[in-house]
Amino acid sequence: MDLNRATEIIKNSDRITVFTGAGISTASGIPDFRGENGLYRTVQKTYNLPSGETLFDIDYFDWDPRPFYRFTGDMYGLDPQPTRCHRLLARWEEEGRINLVITQNIDGLHQKGGTKHLLECHGTYDRGHCRACGCECGLDEYEATMIRGEVPHCSCGGVIKPDVVFFGENLPDEFYRLWENPPESDLILILGTSLNVHPASDLALKLLNRAPSLIVNRDATDFDRFIDTVIHGELEEFARTMEEYFRFTL
Ligand code: CNA
User: Fold this and answer.
1) pLDDT digits over 129-159, tens only?
2) Is the entire prediction scored with pTM above 0.85?
3) What's the number of CA atoms in the CB half-sphere (13 Å) around residue 43?
């Protein structure tokens, strides 16, 4: 992959808005959805689901939350750590080159990697709500049960669901606020996403009208023709090249 062009573009940018997806975390061991070894190919069989999508379907969760929690327990077991690329973004933010990271991911690796200005379009595991009484619960109240792959319950007996956004649920208010008031950017940098999950990806596509854009992704996306510079390749290689070029150690 020819990263010279990417290096030139990033060198000359100091208000980069980044949009990330599952591909930034695959090097940590968490599979993506649609890639070669993606979850959609495996979860249906592993967790005995009608389809891959049902893992994150709110109606299915309300009917049977066990597959979701078995899956979550398995992911926790991998003990994923931020990748070189997560750390690269945190470093660029610290240097003032990045103004915001927008992620579709729910793995918490951007925060763990040090990013501060972050919009998590698909919510977070850090808090949850009871599906019966609606009360809010802190992660400490249900984390241990979740790590064991079991279903956590509220004191009222209802099932607790982490505040990750399932198919059939609204995105967080911050997403819509940003939609109305997008940041001033001099580059839209898209990393590791198929841009196929809406409405989150619509925000990235909307941002494309506001600034030059660059995508680094392993596979082609349906939207590459709308992006100014398209690079197909591995994000860890991208991060290593940037590390060398910008002369820091991640
Ligand atoms: P996706 O549709 O699975 O697309 C991922 C993209 O990343 C694919 O186009 C791959 O080619 C590309 N990719 C995978 N690995 C690499 C790599 N090492 N280097 C470069 N490119 C790579 O996932 P999206 O993020 O586009 O879809 C959004 C969904 C996925 C959101 O709802 C997420 O919540 C959901 N998801 C999140 C995680 C996570 O939090 N880590 C994991 C799996 C799915």
Assistant:
1) 999 999 999 999 999 999 999 999 999 999 9
2) yes
3) 25
Residues with Cβ < 8 Å from 177, sequence gap 6 or more?
none
Asked whether the CA dihedral 242, 246, 249, 250 is positive or negative, the reply is negative
Q: Is the peptide bond before 199 cis (omega within 30 degrees of 0)?
A: yes
Residues 6+ apart with CB under 8 A from 64: none
pLDDT band at 39 (very low <50, low <70, confident <90, very high): confident
Q: From the centroid of its chain, how far is CA 52?
A: 18
Q: Report the separation in Å between the CA atom of 217 and the middle of ligand 1, taken as the mean of its atom positions.
A: 9
Q: Give me the residues paired with residue 101 across strands.
A: 18, 118
Ligand 1: residue of 20, 25, 32, 238 to mutate (most ligand atoms within 8 A of CB) is 32
- Tell me the one-letter amino acid at 170: N
Residues having CB within 6 Å of any atom of ligand 1: 21-23, 25-27, 30, 32-35, 38-39, 104-107, 122, 192-194, 196-197, 217-219, 234-235
